[in-house]
Amino acid sequence: MSSFVLPIAEVVPAVRGALAAHSLVVVQAPPGAGKSTGLPLELLGEPWLAGRGIVMLQPRRVAARAVAARLAEGLGEEVGGTVGYRVRFDSRVSAATRLEVVTEGILTRRLQRDPELSGVGLVILDEFHERSLNADLALALLREVQGALRDDLRVLVMSATLDPGLPGRLGAPLIESAGRAFPVEVRYLPVDPVGRVEDLVARQVRLALEAEPGDVLAFLPGVREIRAAAGLLSDVDAAVLPLYGDLPVREQARALRPDPGGRRKVVLATSIAETSLTIDGVRVVVDGGLSRTQAFDPASGLSRMVTGRVTRDAAAQRAGRAGRTAPGVAYRLWSERTQPLLPAARPPEVMEADLAPLTLELAQWGVPDPADLHWLDVPPARRVETARGVLRDLGALDAAGRMTPEGARLLDFPTHPRVAHLLTAADDAALAADVAALLEERDPLPPGSGADLTDRVAALRAWRGGGRTPGDVTVLERVERLSRQWRTLLKVRPDDSAPDGFAVGALILRAYPERAALAREAVAGLGRGRFLLSGGQGAALPEGDGLAGVRALAVAHLDAAPMSAAQAEGRIFLAAPLDPAALDAGAAWVDSVRWDARTGTLVAQRERRFGALVLESRPLRDLPAQARVAALAGAVREEGLHLLTFSAEAQALRDRAESVRAWRPDETDWPDLSDAGLLDTLEDWLGPHLGAARSREDLGRLNLLPAMQALLPWPLPARLDELAPTHLTVPTGTRVRLSYRPGEAPILAVKLQELFGLADTPSVNGGRTPVLLHLLSPAGRPVQVTQDLRSFWNSSYFEVRKDLRGRYPKHPWPDDPWTHAPMKGTKKRGV
Fold this sequence. Notes:
This is ATP-dependent helicase HrpB. The protein is about 35% helix and about 20% strand. It is α/β, with parallel strands linked by helices. An 8-stranded mixed beta sheet has the order 4-3-5-2-6-7-1-8, with helices on both faces. A hairpin with a 2-residue loop joins β3 and β4 (about 90). α14 runs antiparallel to α15 (about 430-440), α15 (about 430-440) packs across α17 and α16 (about 455-465) crosses α17.
């Protein structure tokens, strides 16, 4: 359709042919080949499109706008004609648009509203190597649409780097373009550096400006580091420009285009500049070696930004930016020895991310179990269950995991379900818009401003009203822009009155119901500023924070990690005061029976709870038997079986049964009476014998022999006596007790004289297991241990006899133990 000469041109015929014959095709082409900005235009005239359009998914808003601009430029048009884009709260499309570049879940929304994708003949998933959550979800939904509704729908998966096994996993042909990347010289530091990344990057940028031609692209992990580096470079003879996702569109365009005054550029960017974007004039890359990503902790249900080392594939993408238009240089601010130690690639986002948005989308799609779709990597079941819990708390899913009317409402808001639930609050929509915008953007107040979100709302409203504010004006502009978009959606006017702290807290509670918090001084006598969250975690405010004295909080931003090894609490960064009465609607009365390890007793109460928070309690007189058994069993598991007293008889029974179980693993009827086995089944065997036990002393007094006997149903007791008898009769007629140790031979401790004439070692276990004889002197002291009595009589006996004759002269010590009668006493007493 166009007469471009981008490197991708060489494979356009192959791509056309593959898409004509297959519904799913994979294209791999290096950075700068034109796969994003050229190939889609060449496919607009394909006959299998039949006049329908193309939708291309880009993982980032900056790239979506930039790619749309390049595509439109390739046609000699403005964006909004044949080529348009849609991102969150921004779109440029028209009736003439046939190629849409979309992101931020726009494709998923379109699929939900129109599963057949009417008017669309091809969906392109660009930069698929990033394995974003949206891209994986889109691919899974598209494959189902192809199989059930649209066998004529084509899907094209594109990337600069791909898992070699991807085409095979998708069952799709692979088209590879060699591209035309210019050579890039990669330079390392001699040793790994020490210091702040912004200092290191700024120093290297200065050196690069002096030594190399062209513009410089530097990678830093986040906005804070970009601002710090920009300050350090404020005096260089170049235009220093930031580039990150929340930057206004006009400023993003300045970073991407040549400087109007012809000056060199230094672009300080986050990882959004790794792919898709071509920044005109860049010949030098400075890679700080760090990347900031969102990490989700399923144990706490919290997400937080984590800064880590760049992966090897991302570092390769970054270096490639220097060779898009001419030969270049990439400076890596780490040593060459460290390079192979970097992670090869980031795991797919679906394996790490908060899955609440995805889980809600799947419920709307009618597939509550993700495993029912064709995924490249099935979402982890544990994370899905955590997400379902969050959505149930928000009222978005019912107990069976089905979508509720509230869940359907949440999907009308292009944001996380938590924030969407906040926006559905009807009481004060203007305040909801301000709070939602502040939660989604960076903190506009400087460090040390306290944790109260109410202060941020006040700062926003003061700035909006033209007053002075301590906040960062650039951030406040972004917050206001987002708040305005929410107000437009909610059809409300701005409110610049002083915000009510309790109203702000109530809105946070809607978004984070598991983060309601009560002061621990009120519940546990601890110091000010320390709180218990309704999700069960402990958390603390910074020392001296203005919210430290409130009784209840609604927490918005929280670091789940402990502040120190000695203090197992998270840190509260952003919260608002909460009227405890706000918890009443979600509270419920529950019977609580728990073990108090400090007093060693059961505590039984009727409690009105909001999650883990106890709002009110009363003594529970009628103690439910099942709850009491569960609490006592929990106490034994926590403190150990030593809470119980096994009598000699009970312990002997356990040892005998465990011995037989070890000897005869093929006989599966024998119960597991080991410590681990008993702890696993406490409720079953201990519960019926607890009686009225309520304390540590009561547990210690229990007679456990009947409980152990009950674990051996008929005919096992008789079988036990047969295989592991309690006693053996020796030649003198004495019945001697056996001592059993599971996994070892049982011990028979008997006076040597009582075995005169006995040739074979006694045995148990149906004759399979000889006992371990502890041969005793007349005083009962062991003189020999053996499992081979015959050998003892023939050899060792004579050495033992010398010693025993001198020490016990009145006792018989015959020369021939084989023929001497067994005896219990001295020569006079005989047998």
